[in-house]
Amino acid sequence: MKYMSTIVQPVSQQESAEKKSSTLNKPQTGLIIGGLIAAAVLFVFLLITQDIVQPILLVIGLLLGYTLFHARFGFTSAFRRLASVGNGQSLRAHMLMLAVAVTLFAPILALSFSFFGGTPQGYVSPVGVSLLVGAFMFGIGMQLGGGCASGTLYAVGGGRSVMFITLLFFVVGSTIGAAHFNFWMEDMPSAEPFSLATSTGLGYSGAWLVSLGIFAAVAAITIIIEKKRRPPKMAAVPSEKGWRRIFRGSWPLFAAAVILAVLNALTLATRDAPWGVTSAFTLWGSKAAYAMGFDVESWSYWAGDLATLHGSIFADSTTILNFGVILGAFLASAAGGLFSFTKIKAGNAAASVIGGLLMGYGARLAFGCNIGAYFGGIASFSAHGYIWGVMALAGTFLALFLRPLFGLSVPKPKDTFC
Fold this sequence. Notes:
mainly alpha; two-stranded antiparallel sheet; disordered N terminus; transmembrane; cell membrane; transport
């Protein structure tokens, strides 16, 4: 698995040939030029037809995709490697990312700081059956689909062919989840949203300190697990030296964690909401369903927001972020000489269909994905973000038994991670 798995999966016989191509190749100049032209055209189009926020978000999305690809920053792989062999390197990078994020989110939310005069709101969602079921489904789905929400986007940008299947069924699953939204929200038990900052009396400063303590505890637990299980470490991925490393080769995982947190904070201050991914998938799928004659307007998911449903996708800020991530990953892969469409095997395709459906449906139930619920939720001091992470990890444990059924590898203690 050439892109998502370059540094986060064990090398199996199936992947050995792909490992060879992880060495630095010559930049794919034609693709780079084409990608820059596409980004420039989209930027100008947004500048002319949309609010100024949209072209700014496109640039942020480009930087997100570029960072994700260069660091091969994985959420799916981090959970899988911890669950399978006890390697917590990537999860510790998550904790650093979250620590930086809450440090930046706290003053933005407390002071209602916005670049364009709005009122930033974090992702604070209810805790109930839908969250538990949805996050668990998402955990299974991302291990079968080969990537999480952000991972699917940047793998598509990198040319990993099977991820186009995952993305398609991610959209389908999200749309079905929107159609069933009323059942999960109205008929299933749920508690009120709970914020460490506003529901406890701690305020944002107190919630910030508590959050840092939780992150430190999680990081310490991963170290304890590693000392007990002695898992393999992640091997270095080839990279340029000096300033050229900005454009080619791998980036340090922890550097990417900081950059992603900063970009998420910039997103919050720009569009008054954190980074998200899957609401755009629901919009795309709902528009397609409406065009096919489905009574989408009656779905409770779209109640009070029909303007978004019938408006241009270019007016949707999450859609623009997603386009930016794909383009940013494309530019990063071309700069490293790595862009190419990969062969799709039947087992991988079947797993991608099921994984995409589970992720899409699960994301709607759980108020988001690894970005909106886990990253954005925890950064917003919401309890639902922590619960999402626990349930997605539980789903990962189950998925370890399902992956071999589709010919997908499972990390083992003696494997070498690359």
